[in-house]
Design brief:
The chain is an all-alpha fold. The chain has 2 domains: 136 residues, Cytochrome c-like domain (Cytochrome Bc1 Complex, Chain D, domain 2), CATH 1.10.760; 131 residues, Cytochrome c-like domain (Cytochrome Bc1 Complex, Chain D, domain 2). It contains 13 helices and 4 strands. Bound molecules: heme C (HEC) (2 copies). One heme C binds next to helix 4, helix 5 and helix 8. Involved in methylamine metabolism. Essential for the maturation of the beta subunit of MADH, presumably via a step in the biosynthesis of tryptophan tryptophylquinone (TTQ), the cofactor of MADH.
Length: 357
């Protein structure tokens, strides 16, 4: 009898120790990294899960900012869409915005650098217009501060649309349907200001907020795979990508030189500041799977190549950003980062072509 009791005690002690060891090892896991997938309920306290933690690092894409001077209306959007597709906007009537910002390439052109009227070659890669409405500064060098200001840029640019603005207004005034549409949208005449405002209003409707990543942010833990989540951890952690690709639109609207040196001085042309040499605005990162090639000069063909560039973090001159450094990521981590970038792309956007009057 005595012996049986002591055996029971002995068993109880061992079981107690085992439980302690399991608990301590569980806790030490939580201490060692915030990302450890441990059971998130210990006793009565609920600890945040890995997913809850990761979500705190991002912001959901909110409503599009709209300037008070140019409130959006359906009439403006319908008109802006026609203008976006209308080749009359170019000097030789052969190039429209859609020529370079093609719908099936998520509003880019698939080229390293853009080609405008008469095959004239530009120096920069065509960025997407999707979610451009969220930027505080437009163009790779940030030289425009609103979509209204931006819109006339390509029209008058000699290597893009090479159009005289007075000539354009005259051409549009010759079309009765345009006269009617402008009168409806602006209670006024056709002017370059109204052309810009209509184009900007249309662009404010070109929004992507429906990617696996966005679903994850909204609370669907299964929207991302384990690999994509590992990539996300690197994006906010070791990779420090979020330093510059910050905020809901993945851009801090700031300028950095990433050691892509091809003679284009980027932001320097706008500010005349030494430190801005070769610096470009951090681009947004949604729909990337459709917008290759990448970077301001289109020099990188794949996302793998982009991630490799970051992993190497080579400084080419004294202007290279101090936030751009070698990352020492393993092949597995680089692949995960690519997978995460891909999860920022949703289904292809489909748009019905407007009838040009
Ligand atoms: C010949 C090709 C071409 C045409 C035509 C063209 N674009 Fe672009 N677009 C570009 C390129 C290249 C850039 C980047 C230029 C730069 O950063 O210096 C750009 C930049 C932009 C941006 C800024 C995006 C960002 O990330 O900051 C917007 C918005 C835009 N274009 C809208 C338009 C509109 C509206 C039209 C028609 C009126 C148009 N584009 C016509 C090639 C083109
Ligand atoms: C120091 C700021 C900074 C950091 C850190 C940073 N980026 Fe960037 N990113 C930029 C800038 C600026 C560009 C455009 C550079 C250029 O064209 O010269 C860019 C371009 C890109 C592009 C190309 C997008 C396109 O449309 O062409 C991708 C993809 C990208 N970054 C992903 C990442 C990832 C992944 C990380 C983390 C490993 C990262 N970035 C870290 C600033 C940064």
């Amino acid at each position: 009898m005595k012996r049986i009791v002591s055996t029971n005690r002995y068993l109880l002690m061992i079981t107690g120790m085992v439980i302690c060891i399991i608990m301590v090892s569980g806790l030490s896991k939580i201490g060692s990294t915030a990302f450890q997938n441990v059971d998130n309920k210990i006793g009565s306290t609920t600890l945040p899960s890995v997913d809850d933690y990761l979500r705190t690092k991002f912001e959901k894409l909110g409503l599009v900012p709209v300037p008070v001077e140019n409130q959006v209306s359906e009439q403006k959007v319908v008109l802006g869409k026609m203008l976006f597709f209308d080749k009359r906007l170019s000097g030789n009537n052969e190039v429209s915005c859609i020529t370079c910002h093609a719908v099936d390439k998520a509003f880019t052109d698939g080229r390293a650098t853009a080609v405008g009227v008469d095959g004239r070659e530009g120096q920069r890669n065509t960025p997407t217009v999707l979610n451009a409405a969220y930027y505080e500064k437009l163009f790779w060098d940030g030289r425009a501060t609103s979509l209204e200001e931006q819109a006339l840029g390509p029209i008058i640019n000699p290597v893009e649309m090479d159009q005289d603005l007075d000539e354009l207004v005259k051409e549009l005034k010759d079309v009765p349907e345009y006269r009617r549409l402008f009168a409806n949208a602006f209670q006024g005449e056709i002017t370059t200001k109204h052309i810009a405002e209509a184009l900007a209003s249309y662009e404010r409707t070109l929004i992507v907020n429906d990617t696996p990543f966005d679903h994850y942010l909204q609370g669907d833990n299964k929207a991302l795979t384990t690999q994509e989540k590992l990539g996300m951890e690197i994006f906010v952690g070791k990779g420090s990508c979020i330093t510059c690709h910050a905020g809901a639109n993945f851009s801090d609207n700031d300028f950095d030189n990433l050691g892509i040196n091809n003679g284009d001085l980027g932001r320097f042309y706008v500010t005349d500041q030494e430190e801005d040499k070769g610096a470009f605005r951090s681009p947004q990162l949604r729909q990337l799977i459709y917008t290759a090639p990448y970077m301001h000069d289109g020099s990188m063909k794949t996302l793998e190549e982009v991630v490799k560039h970051y992993n190497e973090g080579k400084h080419v001159d004294q202007f290279t950003s101090e936030d751009f450094n070698p990352l020492n990521l393993s092949d597995k981590e680089q692949a995960a980062l690519v997978a995460f970038l891909q999860s920022l792309s949703g289904k292809p956007i489909k748009i019905e072509e407007p009838k040009i009057p």
